[in-house]
Amino acid sequence: MWNTEIKSVAPLLPRKYTKADIIALLKYYYPHEWQSVESIYKYYCTKDKYLKRRFGKSRYNMSEPKLLIQRVSAFKKIFSESYKCAHWNAYSEKSCVDSSVKLWEARKCKIDRINSKIEIALSKTQQVTPLFINQLIGLYERKNTTQKDKVYILLELKKYYCEKIIQFFFRLNDTELNKQLREEAFFHLQSFNFNPRLRKQQFMQVHTKNKKRKCYLKEVYPYEEYNIPQNPDELEYRIENSKEQKIKSFDYFISHSSKDSKEVQQLIYDENQRGKNVFCDWINDVDYLKRHLLCAATLKVIEERMKQSKALIFVQSENSLKSIWCKYELNYFRRLNRPIYVVDKKSIINDIFNLSKLEDNWFVDSNYKNLALIAGEGIN
């Protein structure tokens, strides 16, 4: 790796260049490839740290990307005295600029395409580290956790984007014996362009001396599968009976109109940057809360999510003021006697995210639940 990339940036180097110049050019013209190597480096550093703590010595000892690249033959060639001399004599600023424009034209479309891919993946997550992340990972790693529960736990982890979760998925991709779970980790990492390698089942190793467990891990566990029924009844059951749902908590519940999703996404990103974990139905429960599947279980799920939230943010707009769903959520949260904040859609558009207490009780209606169910019946 990197020989072709280094050769492509060589004509862009200044007359007198350093190692830092080459690395800077590679980071600029091949940003995602560089990030991929940095992610792998972090992963193996984490593994070595654990091995050294547990067994007294590290195993992988991967060099930093900026040192690793110096071992590439093309890199060594560029720093040979003969190449430096030839580059100095042949250097032309116009040629350097032309080469820069040509390479950027060749690279821009691919970089934009990958950026778009990553942006889509990020829009389906919250970019924050939830307080319950260690508990979720701990539940997954228990010996008695079933295939079904592991599938549900992975589904919850995929809703967040942070360093700890990405490293956990790297570990699953590397060591998970179950084919379904390993592929889940692989495809999730791929969606963020991390470029992992999917290990084949025949190369997975079982580390245990217990014959019975070894037989299970080699012949049964790798081929177990579970497919989640995607409906509100299933989520209602999980909330009432599963640990991965009971440990969840949110700083804010976002009450909004689906027509304002773009502005809501901006608000969620801003709150994530402040370290706040937000509940938004089309991110946190998109697999279950389908509007065309609306029933009493749907309302039950939404109510449970509000109970798990410390406060509610109402995104005020022409759309949300007319929304039966928002009215329902505001009424229920008022019954919980917890803080309700409001932010205007126009403020979000102007990058102003200041929250204020909702003082006006325009939404109060004792028949709010029936109104929501009636509205749901009108959905095709």
UniProtKB/TrEMBL annotation:
Record key words, sorted: Receptor
**TIR domain spans which residues?**
248-375
Q: Which InterPro entries match?
A: ThsB__TIR-like_domain, TIR_dom, Toll_tir_struct_dom_sf
Q: Which Pfam family, an example, fits this chain? A: ThsB_TIR
Task: Give the species this sequence originates from.
Answer: Bacteroides zhangwenhongii
The entry's protein name is Toll/interleukin-1 receptor domain-containing protein
